[in-house]
Amino acid sequence: MTMITSAPGAGVGPLLRGWRERRRLSQLELALRAESSARHISFVETGRARPGQALLLRLAEHLDVPVRERNALLLAAGYAPLYPETPLDDPSMEALREGVERLLAAHEPYPALVVDGTYRVLAANRTMALLLDGVAEHLLVPPLNAMRLTLHPEGVAPRIVNLRQWREHLLQQMERQIALARSEPLRALYEEVSAYPLPEGAVDGPDEDASQLFPFALPMRIAYGGRVLNFLSTIATFNTPMDVTVSELAMETFLPADPETGAFLRSLLP
């Protein structure tokens, strides 16, 4: 995995070139999408021309540059950042917080949580406690981290029946995110959790191949109270975010993958 970087003071050109190459677009392809010319894109990338703010934002949009990194492009080009980064507990975020809390509560009795761009847990519903049964106390000290909780040998990992499959899925998910954003904290988290040793006995045998049991999607199979609960995971994000904080929020919801799991979860809450 490589990171898009440029030397301090190098300007916006190397950053744009890095994003374009990451998206595997030619200068001509990008120019056509952004209503510019390949010549002008070349001049911008080599520092011979300074892009206007409107063009820079169009380029960022067509390169699918994350909101946080769009601010970095603007700064490198000599413009003020356009997108604020508002703390989630700010009074201006009250409507968003209430909406998220309603969604989490409405998903019960199935587990759901909200994380930021580095998987820090910001909110969760009551059923998430079920998945955290037996997790070591030191992992439950705030701020909680969903990846750390899941993959640490003293976390949820020992109870995940198809751990090797689920671990590979999560690490690949992080790799895709690192490819999209220049996040050193996310990269550091990846290096940490990918180095965790597998808990003793965590070997998926033929009978534990979840893809054979659930061919439509890979589930997380977790042992709980003498039974195995099977979950499908979905992730939701906000469309067209205009704030860095909002752009990095993700709600992960766990749906029962079979009738038995659904019936058991419904029996837990009144």
Automatic annotation (TrEMBL):
Residues 16-70 form the HTH cro/C1-type domain. It comes from the Bacteria. GO terms for molecular function: DNA binding. SUPFAM superfamilies: lambda repressor-like DNA-binding domains. SMART domains: HTH_XRE. Pfam families: HTH_3, MLTR_LBD. This is Helix-turn-helix transcriptional regulator. It comes from Kitasatospora camelliae.
